[in-house]
Write a structure and sequence with these properties.
Helix content: 40-55%
Shape: globular
Protein name: Sulfotransferase family protein
Structural class: alpha/beta
InterPro entries: P-loop_NTPase (IPR027417)
CATH topology of one domain: Rossmann fold
Length: 328
């Protein structure tokens, strides 16, 4: 069987990929291959290079990776969160690739983790503002306006449902309370038919902590002054010079760009399609996909000009010069 973990972004994909990479030999003893792509040293722990090749129309190279995997074991695991979003534009190419992968009677299953839309959008936004490759300058509301149609998971999953067929698309909510043993790795292993997580080691992967909303807002306002290399240097400098609570979201707490009323209104737009997913892929008569409750208290941070100026002053005392610009 070919198991394809298609994402999404910001749903623990990097953690799972580090675990799979660190346990290649243990997985092989259970009859599972997690392919190593020697020509892609930077992304050796995942398979984004395969997604890029497929998007470029090259299906032979990704198919050969799968064939080589099957030559070594009965099951092959691929993981690349970019496979989910490219399906809408490259469904025919993906179909031709999967036809090659199925040669010899092999089956294909796709696994996807879905995060509650309001939380997912906010996580994507923080990343897009922070990431050196994007350095977003849009406000959250403008970003949300652009993203709303792409947060309809029912529509997004249709190409993959057509590609792998009934019974072969595994949909899992990205909520710890809904995972096997409240553990993401155990949940994923259960999804691929390998329920014994005790024999797999969990490596110390690079931390992927979220910046707090105030630091994200400062970045948004100053991003026009930095290119990719300058952003990389600036992030390293900030994380080194400032206390953690000035940079990162407090552990165990979660701020929000949306008020409780805005959360409810935002999630109401996806209520019907989320219910379809819960019924169709999870067999839930109640139609509930996400079980974590929406906020009852207002968690919006202070992003006023005064608050941002205070952060700028704190940076200046650490000898970090940053000039505010008009953005968004």
């Amino acid at each position: 069987m070919l198991y394809i973990h298609i994402g999404l972004h910001k749903t623990g994909s990097t953690f799972l990929q580090f675990c799979l990479d660190a346990n290649r030999r243990r997985l092989a003893r259970h009859g599972y291959v997690y392919p190593y792509i020697a020509d892609d040293r930077y992304y050796r722990f995942q398979h984004v290079v395969l997604a890029r090749a497929i998007a470029a129309g090259d299906i032979e190279f990704p198919a050969q990776i799968v064939r080589d995997g099957f030559a070594a074991a009965g099951n092959v695991i691929l993981s690349a969160e970019r496979l989910a979003p490219i399906s809408a534009r490259h469904e025919n190419t993906l179909a031709r690739w999967l036809d090659l992968c199925r040669q010899g009677g092999r089956g294909v299953k796709a696994i996807v983790y879905l995060r509650r839309q309001d939380l997912y959008a906010q996580s994507l936004y923080r990343h897009a503002v922070r990431a050196p490759e994007t350095r977003l300058t849009l406000t959250f509301q403008d970003f949300l306006a652009q993203r709303r149609p792409r947060l309809d998971y029912w529509t997004m999953l249709q190409p993959w449902y057509r590609l792998v067929g009934p019974g072969n698309l595994v949909v899992r909510p990205y909520e710890p309370g809904q995972w096997q043993g409240n553990d993401l790795l155990a949940d994923f292993l259960h999804a691929i038919g390998l329920a014994d997580a005790k024999r797999l080691k969990v490596p110390r992967s690079p931390a992927n902590r979220s910046y707090n909303a105030r630091m994200v807002e400062l970045l948004r306002l100053t991003n026009p002054s930095r290119d990719k290399a300058a952003q990389q240097r600036f992030l390293k400098l900030v994380e080194t010079a400032l206390p953690e609570d000035w940079v990162f979201e407090t552990r165990g707490e979660r701020s929000s760009y949306l008020s409780p009323e805005e959360q409810r209104s935002f999630m109401a737009a996806y209520e019907k399609t989320n219910a379809l997913i819960a019924s169709h892929w999870l067999g839930r008569a109640d139609g509930i996909l996400f079980r974590e409750p929406l906020d009852e208290v207002d968690r919006r941070p202070d992003l006023s000009a005064g608050a941002i100026r205070a952060l700028q002053d704190r940076l200046a005392r650490s000898s970090i010069d940053v000039q505010l610009a008009h953005a968004g």
